Known about the structure:
By secondary structure, the protein is α+β, with helices and mostly antiparallel strands. It has a single domain (31-197), classed as L,D-transpeptidase catalytic domain-like. Helices cover 21% and strands 29% of the residues. It has 2 helices and 10 strands, in the order αβββββββββαβ. It has helices spanning 2-28, 175-188; strands spanning 51-56, 65-71, 74-83, 101-113, 118-124, 127-128, 135-136, 140-142, 171-173, 193-197. The strands form 2 sheets. Strands 1-2-3-9-8-5-4-10 form an 8-stranded mixed beta barrel. A two-stranded antiparallel ribbon has the order 6-7. β4 (101-113) and β5 (118-124) form a beta hairpin. The longest helix is centred in the N-terminal third of the chain and has 27 residues, at 2-28. The protein is globular, with a radius of gyration of 20 Å.
Amino acid sequence: xxxxxxxxxxxxxxxxxxxxxxxxxxxxxxxxxxxxxxxxxxxxxxxxxxxxxxxxxxxxxxxxxxxxxxxxxxxxxxxxxxxxxxxxxxxxxxxxxxxxxxxxxxxxxxxxxxxxxxxxxxxxxxxxxxxxxxxxxxxxxxxxxxxxxxxxxxxxxxxxxxxxxxxxxxxxxxxxxxxxxxxxxxxxxxxxxxxxxx
Length: 198
């Protein structure tokens, strides 16, 4: 009788493990941008094979930093990116660069229609700065485009050059680079977090 109970327990444990392994990849590789609907990526613990985004801040020039896509621990693409207005104080609201840490990705879309951010955009969670004195809100990975991703005519919707890597704290990419990043993430899987490193 004990052998039967042990066998049943082993069978149930094996079923639970298989169910978990079967369901986990859908959560980790949710594509928040594929439909263009703006629905968010699922948050969760990153698996060793997960896709990750890494923003590597350049202390010499915050507008000449990099954003990298990693898959299985290997870099797949690196793009020039900026954050802030050249201010390294991550507690300086609307001026300072992004605080270090793991930022949960809340949503990604190709057709964001905010007051300042439009088009291709990845929205990040709100997060306190390093001293805890300010919560950084309305933080995105984005570019300067119209809602449909096309180039506009006003300065806020048109990429004019290196000065456009400046932002109010968001991670800013060239329009061609953010489009390439979205295509890559559609292929390799969407991350759940952005890791910001000094």
